[in-house]
Design a protein that fits this description.
mainly alpha
Length: 205
């Protein structure tokens, strides 16, 4: 069934992109390399989670997922003269890590929390791209328009991820999760590559 190997194909393509960025060894592409490597790892874990269903993969999946919007925000905020990235951005992933390792003693609702995390950062990126006082000052003048479009694309993809989570919730509520694998696979196949393109675009600008 094509739904099972597709995450590994996407992970392979993302890994190739990450290697190409690593070979460039440019300071501006370092955040993009970290982000794309994180996306490749996340996609691999998703594929392994739905193929073998080991407890280790169930543990790692929400932890890696919580790091994606934070890392995306850092990649775009670093294009501004005064990056609005503060240490408190690391709090959500730390809470997810703590909740994952203390389950079932601490039953934190991770799914709604991850959904809100993606919605929050998605809206923040969209707002930053439309805010006249928050132009990416570290981007070449000729590339500002392209950088803003990349920022909007990244925000849209984070919001799309929240919609995927909503679709999964509906599927489990009304269809016992019959379509969950297809929703998750197609969602990651579209979401992470487009996010990677947006991050590469801003890093090369």
């Amino acid at each position: 069934m094509i739904a099972i190997p597709l995450p590994f194909v996407v992970a392979l393509l993302l890994s190739i992109l990450a290697v190409l960025l690593f070979v460039r060894r440019e300071k501006t592409t370092q955040p993009a390399f970290v982000f794309i490597a994180l996306c490749a790892l996340t996609t691999t874990v998703v594929g392994l989670r739905w193929t073998f269903d080991y407890s280790l993969f169930r543990l790692l999946q929400p932890i890696l997922a919580s790091c994606i919007p934070v890392t995306a925000w850092y990649c775009f905020s670093s294009a501004h003269q005064n990056p609005p990235f503060r240490s408190w951005h690391l709090l959500p992933p730390m809470v997810v890590v703590l909740a994952s390792f203390t389950y079932p003693f601490w039953r934190l609702p991770l799914d709604p929390m991850l959904t809100m995390l993606y919605v929050g950062y998605g809206i923040a990126l969209m707002r930053a791209s439309f805010k006249a006082s928050s132009l990416p000052e570290k981007v070449r003048f000729s590339d500002i328009d392209s950088a803003l479009k990349a920022e909007r694309l990244a925000g849209s993809m984070l919001l799309l991820s929240a919609c995927i989570d909503g679709a999964l919730a509906v599927d489990f509520s009304f269809f016992a999760g019959v379509h969950a694998l297809n929703i998750l696979t197609i969602g990651h196949a579209v979401l992470l590559p487009l996010l990677a393109i947006a991050v590469i675009k801003i890093s090369l600008s």
